[in-house]
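Severity: low
Component: inverse-folding endpoint
Summary: output formatting inconsistent between runs
Steps to reproduce: submit the following structure tokens with default settings.
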């Protein structure tokens, strides 16, 4: 079995009384990842998005970096898993592999709680004043959500798997004995960390998490767009709280070296 030798980085938070935040520095570890124990998880690599600037940035990242990483994983026999949101995932035949009742028929709703009140949660009735202002109805926006697919160049290939939920992803990983998850896709501050198949949920299940930090980007806002501050913050948050990061160039090079051994 091929071995992917790779340097990954993280922030080391020293466990010492009276330590200062300025002492929390990046560190690098060299790891040997067995190719049969790793997977590339591609989150929401969509062909369309209602945020045009994010779509443009994401498409460039996908074509220039994510596609080569996926090919590198396939070349060494490592798993490539597509997680493009439940509505989008079911456009691809491969989603049925490792699917259970939850994926096929939806989750059963938990028993309703009476607090906070239902109207408060929905910001309706007596609590409507607490709702945020709503934008006018936009049919084009709805069409984008309804019809989006994976970017064609990054669509599943033979042998890839498509997942709908974190539970389905876990079943697949358990079946194949996979322990280390490399994440790429969008957005770095939303779905990549927070989906039920995202980095935080899978870390909580016990998996080792590595973000390919130049294979993602955040959805920015007016105050951060120029310098992509939220994208940088999302990478740092991963390195502090979730796991490790690497780059697409280092990962592709590591896979190429593995092919020579």
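Observed output (run 2 of 3):
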């Amino acid at each position: 079995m091929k071995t992917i030798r790779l340097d990954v980085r993280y922030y080391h938070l020293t466990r010492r009384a009276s330590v200062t935040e300025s002492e929390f520095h990046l560190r690098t570890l060299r790891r040997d990842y067995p190719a049969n124990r790793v997977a590339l998880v591609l989150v929401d690599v969509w062909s369309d998005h209602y945020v045009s600037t994010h779509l443009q940035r994401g498409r460039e990242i996908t074509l220039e970096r994510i596609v080569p990483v996926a090919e590198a994983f396939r070349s060494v026999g490592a798993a490539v898993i597509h997680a493009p949101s439940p509505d989008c995932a079911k456009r691809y035949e491969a989603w049925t592999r490792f699917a259970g009742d939850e994926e096929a028929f939806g989750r059963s709703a938990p028993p309703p709680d009476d607090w906070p009140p239902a109207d408060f949660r929905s910001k309706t009735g007596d609590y409507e004043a607490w709702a945020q202002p709503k934008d006018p109805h936009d049919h084009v926006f709805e069409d984008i959500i309804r019809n989006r697919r994976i970017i064609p160049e990054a669509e599943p290939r033979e042998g890839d798997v498509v997942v709908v939920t974190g539970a389905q992803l876990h079943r697949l990983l358990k079946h194949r004995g996979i322990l280390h998850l490399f994440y790429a896709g969008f957005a770095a501050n939303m779905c990549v960390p927070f989906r039920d198949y995202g980095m935080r949920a899978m870390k909580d299940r016990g998996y080792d998490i590595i973000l390919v930090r130049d294979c993602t980007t955040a959805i920015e806002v007016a105050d951060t767009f120029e310098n992509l501050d939220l994208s940088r913050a999302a990478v740092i948050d991963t390195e502090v709280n979730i796991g490790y990061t690497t780059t697409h160039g280092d990962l592709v090079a590591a896979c190429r070296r593995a092919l020579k051994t």
